[in-house]
Structure formats: C-alpha cells, structure tokens
Amino acid sequence: MESIKKRTPARFKQMSIPYLFTLPWIIGFLAFTLGPLIFSLIISFYEWPVVGDKTFIGLANYKEMFTNDPLFWESLGVTMKFAVLFVPLNIIIALLLAMLLNKNVKGSGFFRTAFYLPSVISGVALAMIWSWVFDGEYGILNYILSVFGIEGPKWLISPTWAPVAMVIASLWGQGSMMLIFLAGLKNIPKDMYEASAIDGAGKWKQFTRITLPMLSPTILFNLITTIIAAFQQLTLALVMTGGGPLNSTYFYAMYMYENAFKYSKMGYSSANAWFMFAIVLSLTLIVFKSSSAWVYYEGEMKQGKK
Amino acid sequence: MRKILIYGVLIFFSLLFIAPFFWMITTAVKSPEELYVFPPKWIPSVFHWDNFITAWESQPFNVFLKNSLLVTGLSLVGQLVSSSLVAYGFARFRFKGKDMLFMILLASMMIPWEVTMIPQYMEFNYLGWINTLKPLIIPAWFGSAFFIFLLRQFIMGIPVELEEAARIDGANPIQIFIRLIVPLMTPALILVGVFHFLSSWNDYLGPLIFLNDQSKYTLTLGLSQFRGMFGVDMVSIMAVTFLICIPPLALFFFAQRYIVGGIATTGIKG
After folding, report:
1. DSSP code of residue B181
2. Same domain, B64 and B21
3. Would the CB atoms of B20 and A129 count as touching at under 8 Å?
4. What is the pTM of this model?
5. Do the Cβ atoms of B142 and A40 come within 8 Å?
6. Is B206 at the interface with chain A, CB within 8 A?
7. Residue ranges in chain B assigned as alpha helix (H)
8. Residue B270 pLDDT more than 70?
9. Which one of A99, A151, B146, B156 has the minimum C-beta count within 10 Å?
C-alpha cells in the first residue's frame, strides 16, 4: 500500500488521499453534529431568546428545570410511563413473531411483509391512520371491541387511554425489530436444539436455556434502541394529540420542542436537550455495563467462563 | 395441532397489522354519508375514486410533491456519493487518526437528532437557510454515519486482490473506486438508497422546523397541516395519506430482498 517513491510532493499527495476520501464526513460531522452539540452546551448556560439580548446565567437553566418547572417532571413522567409499557411489549411481540416465522411455516414471506409494512411509511401517515382507527365514535377499533361486547374508551380524548393509544400505534411501526430477532434466531445452530431434545429438554426449557441466552446480544441491542426511541417520541404526539389531553401524552421531546419553537427559549431548551442526551447516554451505559451479567456471547464458552 | 396454533397466531397478527391500511384505503373511497355510520362499513357500497383527485386538488399538493421530490432526489444523490467515498476511505486506507475517527463515527450514531435540532436550527437560521429546502438536502451531501458504517462493512468483504492488480496497472484510487468498487457494491448502494429515500420522503420533523411558507412544504408537512385545517374531513385525509404512502410501499415491494437482508445483517431501525 505504501508508495515506493520518496519525492516529497508525490508522497504528500499519496498521504492526503485517505483524508480526501473521508473529508466529506469530517466536515459534515463538525458542521452538523459536533459543532451544534458544543454550541447547544454553550447556549444552555444563557438566557437566549430568538430575538433580543442574550445573557449568561450559568447553571440557572438547569436549576430552573429541576426545581421550578413542573412541566419538566410531568413530561419526564409521561416518557417513562410510555417506555415502561412500550419497551417490554415491543420486545416480547417482536420476539414472538420472529420465533413463529422461524418455524418454517408456509407463506412466511407474506407474514414477514405484513409485519414490516407499517415500518416503511411516514410517522405522519401512521399518526393519521391511527387517529382515525382510534376515533371514539366511528373508529374501527371501538367497533371491533363492541363486537366482543366491550365498550371502547374515547381513546385520544381520554387522559387514561391516550398514552395507551400511543403505545399501540408505536408498536405497529416496529417491524424492523422483528427482522433483527429473526436474523438472530437463524444464527442459532440447529444442532443445539437437537442435542437438547435428545437429552429430554422440553420446549420451554429449550427456550429459556438456548434461545434466550443465544439471543441475548440481540435483545441487548433492541433494548437500547427502544429506550432511545421512547425518548425521541415526538411526531406521533405532535400529530395525534398535540400533547393532550391534560398533558397525558406530553412527551419529553415535545416539552423540549415547545420550549424552543413555541416559547423561543433556546437556552432553556438546549439545557433540556443536554439532559436528554445525558439520560440516553447513561441508560445506554447502564445497559452495556449490566450486559456482562445477562448477555451471553458464544466466544466466552471457549474461555471457560460459562 | 401445533401447526394450526402457529398459523392461527400468525394470521391473527397479520390481520392486525394489515387492518389499519385496509381501513385507510376503504375510508378514502367512501362517500361522506357512509363515513359516519355505525356499525362502520369495511367495504363502501360505491367506490368514489374521484375522492383522490378532490382531496389532492383541495390544497397545493402538487407543489408539496415537487418539494418532496426535490428534497428526496437531491439528498439521495449526495448521500450515495459521499457515504460511499468516505466508506471506501475507512475501508481501504491506513492513515493517522483513522481508528479514532472511526470510533467517533460510531459514537455519533448514538446522538439523537432531537439533541442537535435546536442548534442546527440556529445555525441554518444564521446561514439564511431557514424556509429553504437546503437544510433538508445539503447535510446529506456530507454522508451519514450509519450509511458509511454499512458501506464500509460491505467493502471490507470485497477481496482486495482486484484493487492491487488495478494499482499495478497504474490506476489511481479514484479510478479504482469508480470502475471497480462502485459496481461491486451495488447491492449495498441500493440498500442505502432505499433507506435514505424512506427517511427523507417520510421526514416530518425536519420540514416542520426548517420550513415556514406553504410554498416550501413537503408532502408530510402538507398532510399534517391539512388535518389542522379540515379537522374532521377523514375521507380527504385518508385519501392523501394513502397517496403519500404509495412511493415507500412500492419501493418496499421492489427492494424487499435488499431491505430484509440489510436489516438482518446490520440491525437498522427502518
């Protein structure tokens, strides 16, 4: 790979080539990611309206956020509640569907397509469709429930049910997780199951002793991405409920969005953003750190750890 | 017996997943009278296909379509060119700081867009890009970390001998990249193209934040505002929603092979 020529201009040209290839990303990263990130940290220490004077106020934005802003805690609570429902349900449903598809059923291509289809459309389209499905009077969901003798709630105008509606609509658009699980399942060697069957292991034992451990790295990955997705929940809330009713779907991302673009508090909103960044980062780290306790990597077996 | 149970569950879930689409389409071709009947009708008695035209023409959706096509098309070209160049740089060259740069690239994928949206807005405002399509196009010309990562993995899988032979024959890196690597990585480029198309066409928050005038709206933004204006005209809303969903759905059917394989190997969020 190294040039034999030692003439300086030629050598310089040779050395600069890799940087020329990677330059677009380096510039883009500085201009559209790192730059904005640092800039937002700086303005989080300011009172920074869109027009008018900017004043340095130190940690006041953060102090205000934690001690004097009920909306901050409320939106954080809404997000947590959503995550608590959404994260496990999402993983369980995706895993269940993937396991069924992995059973060599006829027409698995059709089923796979059906499960993935909602993931390719826009979040706005998804929100529009579900607003109509959830319609309290003429929506199809309550009609189907009524067939079974259940009187459906007025989904999107009930503070109790609106967050649940959000979870349901979000679950619908998560087909990629099923595909990731399916790929993970296909990588588990068949002979492990055969060997355990000979040893007399039942289906449940095979699931808990082979499938889950072998799949744990994939579960870890999906866990992290779903938690992050919960914190990024914005489009659905903006289009379907506008955060209501009674702030029951006022997600953290929406709180941040409104502080910036509705109330023009750029500094304060940047402090919100950094708090979200810190949460996402620490959740990821916690999940990673804990992973050695429950994630099983095949390579470890050879080192005799398991 | 167990087979029947498996099929039962699969059919049940696939109905759940398809029913909302079906409900959207049948609503779109209903008459207003049939919309508000209880029990609701799955199949309308008369199909009003002209609903699509009426709904589309009730707002400047042709303008929104033009904007969406501009944004998606122009950003797509940039994304493919830049991401593949950078990916090649990371895959095939040794240079100072490469490992650190690559670590940064991987780490940058963890940063939620919501965290940078506020300073990005201020930056674009400073540049005078607000209320233009530029913020939705130009960043794509600098590549995106995930696509670079994906393409790099793909290039790493291509045997290096061909390039060495070409180098001995006197080809320079750019020639090697264009003549040799680009044709070989077509499947990966299709995957990146499809994913970029989907995220750009479907993007809502970007247009929402960066665009003000209706004449600049993209389709998703136009659709969301459409609802605010008409409130309850569900027939028109579903008609436009369906039309906007057609390109992603069509693309998915054509490129399904690449998408399913791509997600399986890389674990992308669609």
Report:
1. I
2. no
3. yes
4. 0.89
5. no
6. no
7. 2-28, 32-35, 50-57, 61-92, 98-108, 113-127, 134-137, 145-156, 161-168, 173-176, 182-184, 186-202, 205-210, 219-230, 234-266
8. no
9. A151
Is residue B127 located within the same domain as residue B209? yes
Pick among A38, A50, A122 to test the B interface (most B CBs inside 10 A): A122
- Please compute, for residue A122, the number of CA atoms within 13 A of its CA located in the half-sphere on the CB side: 30
Give how far the C-alpha of residue B110 lies from the chain's centroid of Cα atoms, to the nearest Å. 19
A242/B contact by beta carbon, under 8 A: no
Domain residue spans in chain A? Answer: 70-302
Q: Do A1 and B123 touch (CB under 8 A)?
A: no
Please list every residue in chain A whose beta carbon sits closer than 8 Å to the beta carbon of residue B194: none
Residue A249 DSSP code: T
Same domain, B43 and B173: no
Nearest CA of chain B to the CA of A141: how many Å?
9
* pLDDT score recorded for residue A146: 87
Q: Residue B54 domain-assigned?
A: no
Looking at the complex, report in whole angstroms how far the Cα of residue B44 sits from the nearest Cα belonging to chain A: 14
Number of domains chain B contains: 2
Minimum-distance CB partner of A21 among B86, B209, B263? B86
Question: A70-302: which CATH number, 3.40.50.300, 1.10.287.1490, 3.40.50.2300, 1.10.3720.10?
Answer: 1.10.3720.10
How many CB pairs below 8 A link A and B? Answer: 260
Chain A: nearest CA to B29, how far in angstroms?
A: 14
The reply to whether B33 and B90 lie within a common domain is: no
Same domain, B39 and B72: no
Burial class (CB in 10 A: 0-12, 13-18, 19+), A234: buried
The reply to whether residue A123 touches residue B108, judged by beta carbons under 8 angstroms, is no
Report the alpha-carbon distance of residue A65 to residue B4 in Å, rounded. 55
Which ipTM score applies to this complex? 0.89
**Using one digit for the tens of pLDDT, what is the confidence trace for A90-143?**
999 999 999 999 888 888 888 988 999 999 999 999 999 999 999 888 888 988
Residue B24 structural domain: 1-48
Alpha carbon distance B89, B152 (integer Å): 8
